[in-house]
């Protein structure tokens, strides 16, 4: 729509230089993220650490389209975020306990996680609604880590 006149414009009928104000050519995708869940995660009293927030942002901006897991090892994520792999593992554990990340695929002993569709989703609204039907609601504050009892 031409915002100055209110007239609907069919992009296919315009010349290349006329399309610029209307055409999305950034090459990026639109992701639907819950501002409520993200704001709760980023609050100072959320119980999530700075690393947790950094790792969540990495998943948010690097997850593939749809309900697919991010197929990166903790070592690969750590290299990109300039963290130690153990710090990434701890943050993924925190985000998993809080329901922001969900296990989606296991290859050998490696678990790949995906974003909870209730927190963020890259895809159509129909696919998001279907993915969110069985997804838990993310939890704030961060649930405490359960210590394994010594045998």
Q: Helices and strands: which structural class?
A: alpha+beta
Main sheet makeup:
2 strands, antiparallel
Number of helices: 6
Helix and strand element order: HEHHHHEEEH
CA radius of gyration is 20 Å
Helix content: 25-40%
Number of strands: 4
- Shape estimate: elongated
Please tell me the overall pLDDT.
85
Any low-confidence stretches, pLDDT <50, length ≥5?
Answer: none
Chain oligomer state = single chain
**In percent terms, what proportion of residues is strand?**
5-15%
Largest beta sheet: what is the strand line-up? 1-4
Rounded to the nearest angstrom, the distance between the terminal CA atoms is: 68 Å
Kindly describe this structure.
The protein is α+β, with helices and mostly antiparallel strands and 151 residues long. Helices cover 36% and strands 11% of the residues. The protein has 6 helices and 4 strands; from the N terminus they run H-E-H-H-H-H-E-E-E-H. The strands form 2 sheets. Strands 1-4 form a two-stranded antiparallel ribbon. Strand 2 and strand 3 (110-115) form a beta hairpin. Helix 3 packs across helix 5 and helix 4 (74-81) packs across helix 5. It is elongated and about 65 Å long. The N and C termini lie far apart (68 Å). The mean pLDDT is 85.
Labels describing this entry:
two-stranded antiparallel ribbon, 36% helix, alpha+beta, elongated, 6 helices, 151 residues, two-stranded antiparallel sheet
Structural topology:
Layout: H1 16-19, E1 32-33, H2 35-42, H3 50-62, H4 74-81, H5 85-97, E2 101-107, E3 110-115, E4 120-121, H6 125-132
Antiparallel strand pairs: 1-4, 2-3
Helix pairs in contact: 3-5, 4-5
